[in-house]
Amino acid sequence: MENQRTTGTHRSEITAFVGLLFASFIVNILAIQIIILGFYSLIILVYFNSRKDSFWILFFLCVTNNLGGMYGLEQELFSFGLFSLSLVEGVSFAAIIKIINRRVKRGVYYQKPFLVFILYSGLLVILGFIYGMSFGQTGFGLLYPLLRNVFLLPLFLTIPRLLWDPEILHNLFRLLFAAVVINLLGQAYTLLTGNQLHTLTSGRIIPDVWTIRPIYGYYCVFIALFLGFYFLLKPGRGFSFGFAAAIILLSALSIFITATRGWIVSVLFILVAITITTPRLLKRFPLILLGLGIGVFFITQSSPVLERQLEYGMQRLSTIEELVRGDLTAGGTMRRLTDRSPRVIKEFYEKPVFGWGYSTHGLNYHDYHVGNQSILMTGGILGLGIVLYWIFFMVNRPFRLFKTLKRTGRPVPQLKIIPIFLIGLFIIHSSSTQLFGYMPYFYPIHFNKVLFLALILSLFNIIYLRNRDNCQHIQNQNP
């Protein structure tokens, strides 16, 4: 009876989640600003009073990440003169107040390097004033996006403190299954019709690139991929091997359909790295390949359009061979190394130690397509060192804990996927879109990066802290 009640609760939550996504879709395609503002203001108020933080944070990420092409790329809830408010900022405000009201004092394992990052960002603000910060006709200029970032960056510390219960991993995984399926359906709709769902009532023609590369919901899909591997490797996982493997394959397929090289390379690295470092997965590798082959066969047979898209993804991936051979344009399909990178690096050479900081000059030359070069230009060698220290810290702590638990005879294989996924994130950051650094969150269209990173780092935090506590308990029992 208890299991039936629990199953019913899970189904109700999934139904509510899908219903809320659909309701948001209807509100968005109506495109009436006062209704959009009222709807999402009500949703933020409900989130503020709710204890189901993981449910609402995932919902906000789905909407801001244009899940299934249902919501578009518009991030602002309203604009009044100079001032604007985005959905992610509303979430951040609510999270800060919730932390204060609940007096939450839970740990965040990467807090130390993150605070070093924040302190250095303060130095870059001072450098921005020294090198020249335009205030524009409004008198605010660059100060306004800086102020908006001040309210966004706390998400890196507030979300991990709100999401602390390991049961959250199970709840999110169930909801993400629905999200991945919705995203794939939206991608299929774009490929088959040449349009996006959120343009149904507008009659607006979308750019041709979207009919070839339906780049939707990738942050949600990446988190689904992570949890898929987590439950695949977790003893007594609570989900069947087949269910976890299915979500992994569907997530990988969704990213492959986008035909985005950096994301595809990242996913391939993750798949290979986890497989070769996990003996029991390595033994099942032929079976996994067979399942993947059968899945691809049925997909290609079901639709010539989907078959053509998979071929296009393979063509995009094969251009990396041209890059290895010395063609910096990857067969004429990439401008990062020939145009974008030299433009940014040239400015870095002028201020190599501390960079240009948050100056107008720095903002003008910042390019999120070349993440590491932009970090060097904005923060200099010291700034890049601090970002790499933050990433290395997040990679090193779980890896050391994994080795420690392995020596005690109680290995936790799911710990090792944290470093692997962080390296995967760094691949995306270096080859596709900047995720880390000092200016990647300056424009509203990129605010969802903060929400994505805060959410996935929260999951890393849950897994790390729980196993660290277990490790300390074991060591106390066996001094």
Question: In words, what does this structure look like?
Answer:
The protein has a two-stranded antiparallel sheet with strand order 1-2. The chain contains 20 helices and 2 strands. Strand 1 and strand 2 form a beta hairpin. Helix 3 packs antiparallel against helix 20 and helix 18 packs parallel to helix 20. With 479 residues, it is mainly α. The protein has one domain.
Strand order of the largest sheet: 1-2
The count of helical stretches stands at 20
Helix proportion: over 70%
* Total number of beta strands: 2
Radius of gyration from CA coordinates? 23 Å
Number of domains: 1
Give the low-pLDDT segments.
1-5
Could you tell me the strand content as a percent range? under 5%
Characterize the overall form.
globular
Give the structural class: mainly alpha
**Which sheet architecture does the biggest sheet show?**
2 strands, antiparallel
**Alpha-carbon distance between the two ends:** 43 Å
Report the average pLDDT across residues. Answer: 85
**H and E string:** HHHEEHHHHHHHHHHHHHHHHH
Any chance you could write out the topology, listing elements then pairs?
Elements: H1 2-30, H2 33-48, H3 53-64, E1 76-80, E2 83-86, H4 87-102, H5 111-131, H6 143-152, H7 155-162, H8 167-193, H9 208-212, H10 218-233, H11 241-257, H12 261-276, H13 279-283, H14 285-302, H15 304-324, H16 336-348, H17 360-365, H18 371-407, H19 417-431, H20 447-477
Antiparallel strand pairs: 1-2
